Amino acid sequence: LYSESDFVEGYYRTERDKGSQYELFYKKADDMEYRHVSLFRPFGPLMKVKTETVDISQSMINIIVPLAERTEVFAQFMQNFRDVCINQDKRIHLTVVYFGQEGLSEVKSILESVAREADFHNYTLVSLNEEFNRGQGLDVGARAWEKGEVLMFFCDVDIYFTAEFLNSCRLNTEPGKKVFYPVVFSLYNPAIVYANQDGPPPVEQQLVHKKDSGFWRDFGFGM
Predict the structure, then answer these.
(1) Are 77 and 143 within one domain?
(2) Which phi and psi angles does 162 have, rounded to 5°?
């Protein structure tokens, strides 16, 4: 049995001529398996649709990042990647598709440094001597994977995510059936938001969902 404290996340939708559908996920604190409960509430009594156990312990994610220059942002991205993906999640492959030659050696150095210090070798660097094209980068990165079935996470270099978000990706996708389009929160320029202070606080303290610090980007599917 699961209680309210075991609730992880959920979502619902309402169809005007039928009723409301609920997708709920529960998990015990020390258990890697999730319980997925689907409910349907017609315009009448609540109906249980299904209850199933979801095991994501072996679900590998390939994070694909198209990149050109922006080496300082990439260094910051790799710091979060190391904290979340290497130290916590441990089921991640990183694919970086780099456009151009300027900054390429620095990106290689950052990747090699992380690989050496964290003993992490699940990464691929693809170099293209062309102008930056995000769509092409994602396509090339996806095709570079040759190790069987994998969940692909199309990611921009300035995205900050958590280990819990990676599990949400696993729970809300199905091979060949379902993709996950999360709505991201975009932060305003910290130099403007914190202009009255001595300087912007650390990145972790800026991650506050309020109207003064940013907005929900609900008009696009980019990450």
Answers:
(1) yes
(2) -120, 170
Considering the domain architecture, whether residues 168 and 120 belong to the same structural domain is answered as yes
Residue 13 one-letter amino acid: R
Within-domain flag for 55: no
The whole domain housing 30 covers 4-42
**H-only helix segments in 6-103:** 71-81
* CATH code for position 86: 3.90.550.10
Tallying the residues shown for the chain, one arrives at: 223
d(CA 110, CA 74): 8
In the three-class reduction of DSSP (H, G, I as helix; E, B as strand; rest coil), residue 173 is classed as: coil
pLDDT band at 199 (very low <50, low <70, confident <90, very high): confident
**What are the E-state strand segments in the chain?**
7-15, 19-26, 33-42, 47-55, 61-67, 92-99, 123-128, 151-154, 184-187, 214-217
Q: 98 pLDDT band (50/70/90 cuts)?
A: very high
146 and 196 inside one domain:
no
Q: Provide the 8-state DSSP code for 44.
A: S
CB proximity list for 35: less than 8 A, separation 6 or greater: 2, 25, 26, 27, 51, 52, 53, 54
Task: Give the model's confidence band at 223: pLDDT under 50 very low, under 70 low, under 90 confident, else very high.
Answer: low
> Are the C-beta atoms of 92 and 61 separated by less than 8 Å?
yes
Residue 30 or residue 103, greater confidence: 103
